[in-house]
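Can anyone check this?
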Amino acid sequence: MSETVKRSELVALVDMDGTLCDYQGAMLRDLERLRSPGEPPLTAEFEDSPWLRARQELIRGQPGWWARLERRQQGFDVLEELRALEFELHVLTKGPSNSTNAWAEKLQWCQAHVPDARVTVTMDKGLVYGKVLVDDWPEYIHRWLTWRPRGLVIVPAQPWNVGFEHPNALRYDGTNLAEVRARLRTVRDAALPKSGEA
């Protein structure tokens, strides 16, 4: 990479839950452990209800729960492409307001699994600067693109983002890594100085 390109021009923001780690799988596993014999089994897109929200808060509040989340390969595929293209890596994750241990444990998880990335835990992802966002959650993607209309979003495939479309977003399903690489390279090349510039 050219020495005249400021690293701040190539910031890539990478989500944690559902992107780098398997939050949903861990939550479903632990909700299943709390299910009573008369309750139907849950699926990946379980219906939200007050009693399920209370159980999720109980699960997320367990010491060590966030720090033990498993890695998710699709997120790490994109992370490796970002490293190869010399983006400055930032993990950008939302901190739940009712789970104070989550903020510290998310940082611990990142230090263990992505030690070369800076970490930002925030309540509003839309306010954080970057050229690229890697995120699975459509609501956060829309919010970020509101403030970064020229930004690029890579969307790791999840059941809740099937059919999500935006001209600045590319869904990554594990089979189209070459397309992801090409789009990231376009962003990187646009930040390089034009010939004759110093």
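Reply from J.R.: I decoded it. The radius of gyration is 18 Å.
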